[in-house]
Amino acid sequence: MSLSSEGAQAAAAAVAVEFEQESDRDSPIIRARNIPRSALIYLRGPKFLIYVSGALSMWGDRMWHFAISVFLIELYGHNLLLTGIFGLVVAGSVLLLGALIGDWVDRNPRNKVAHASLFIQNISVTICSIVLMLVFSYKKWIEEIWDGWLTVVCYTVVIILADVANLASTALTIAIQRDWIVVITGYNRGHLAGMNATMRRIDQVTNILAPLAVGQVMTLASNVVGCGFILGWNVVSLIVEFIFLSRVYRIVPALSVKPPALEHQSSLKKSRERVCLQGGTSSCPPGGIADESSSALPLQDLPRMPLCMQRLRGLISTCREGWRAYYRQPVFLAGLGLAFLYTTVLGFDCITTGYAYTQGISGSLLSILMGVSAVAGLLGTVLFTKLRKAFGLVVTGVISSALHLVCLLLCVCSVFAPGSPMDLSVLNPGNVSDVGGMAGGHQRHGYPMRGASNQPLLPDRSSIHWTNNTVLFENAPAGTEPESYISITLLFLGVISARVGLWSFDLTVTQLLQETICESERGVVNGVQSSMNYLMDLLHFLMVISAPQPQHFGILVIISVLFIFTGHTMYFLYARKAKRKPRTNT
């Protein structure tokens, strides 16, 4: 579907309240006279309200994602087990429920989706913070009840609530960043690119500042105070975001309209099926279910099914239709290519920073490098807007892909540069028992020839400090410096410089999804896209689990580059097809 459809016409007329006023202020004289008025109009306009609401939401998300990992480690005796379980639960739930979340976004009014997602997310975090405060305050007493099983119950409740909050955050992101801003910009590609870039800049800034803020509170005060700080933030954020989103919904009438001719077009079959399953077959069209699948049960057998099985079958059908809708999209290859970029260790997560620690990089230097990386990401958003205006959206993705791959060549060079700990001999069958440093005590803490060569990337027990996404370990063994810093220098040069092309490419694919997907399928397709992203992210953790030692990291780098190359190749194939079709540019 192109941006000049019926929905585009309705939305373009609705958002004239802001964008027509921008064109009226083209005259320098009028603009000089009306600067205060213009500023007031902008501050009351939908764009600014969305930015503020998004900033509050992103800040809360970044604080919570950072803090929950620290809290789980503290609760389980400085062990990474609960953190690993939490990561698997979060990734698995989005992978399984992404299509259902997107379908729910499509089937309900925009204001109800945004308000429900916002309420569920913030209330879940608030309740979870209260539970954590009680556990931290009365941990010894709780451990004595039910022979310690009450502690397990508390851990389970915390993980479930945190996972519910993440699912609600996913729904809110799909609703606001993938749907609302398309309507707010009046389906104008230029305004849409500007809003996407601004939202990404806000995300980059909050990714650095929010964890530092809550980390300082937890360090200077306590974990209980940290939980209280997050609790208070979520309550205030809930109120402010609710008011702002409600105002945006009121001043942009197009948000209340979903074109009848397009709405739920892809889900008519599954809607009929749900009606048939729950209310019998008498009111159903003759072919309402027969076309759904060749494996569908005969109509006469449906009333015999238990209600829970009928609903489960309806949910499975919704998921199946969502994945089919994703596969049918013209931008399918571009979205799949973006998902492949998630299978990488070349980012500032705990894996890469843990490897840097084993190579003698200090925590303060890692924090500086993360700040430089954030600046590179901001430059990527600027590059995106410039390239899109000069060459168009599809070509911008090609240029960004090429820039990303060229910068990653530095990471490949680091694998073979002096100072690289890569040692393929550890993959021999005779050394399998030593993988992860678990063979014995003398191997676990031994550092022959090169410091930290046998230390896992993430030790199972240690005194751990957290700075943003950086893991810092106390009592590090002496002599952990590598023979040369050339390898680690090339690695971080590649990772940081690649952020420019990476974020420009990410914004390109994001806008392609916004422009190409029809309004009635926007939620479910973006939900499946989130599922794909989490699936590929899970693969990168499985890679680290299978090759956890610093000697393996070079292999992980090469595999990561291959996945990234495959993803960009998919985008090149999409771009080749897209350039063959005439496109109208706004």
TrEMBL record:
GO cellular component: membrane
Keyword set, alphabetical order: Ion transport, Membrane, Transmembrane, Transmembrane helix, Transport
Annotated TM spans: 41-60, 80-101, 113-136, 148-168, 205-224, 230-249, 331-357, 363-384, 391-417, 553-574
Subcellular location: Membrane
InterPro entries assigned to the protein according to its UniProt record, in alphabetical order: Ferroportin-1, MFS_trans_sf
Pfam families: FPN1
GO MF assignments: iron ion transmembrane transporter activity
Membrane topology term: Multi-pass membrane protein
Described purpose of this protein according to its UniProt entry: May be involved in iron transport and iron homeostasis.
Family: Belongs to the ferroportin (FP) (TC 2.A.100) family. SLC40A subfamily.
The name this protein goes by in its record: Solute carrier family 40 member
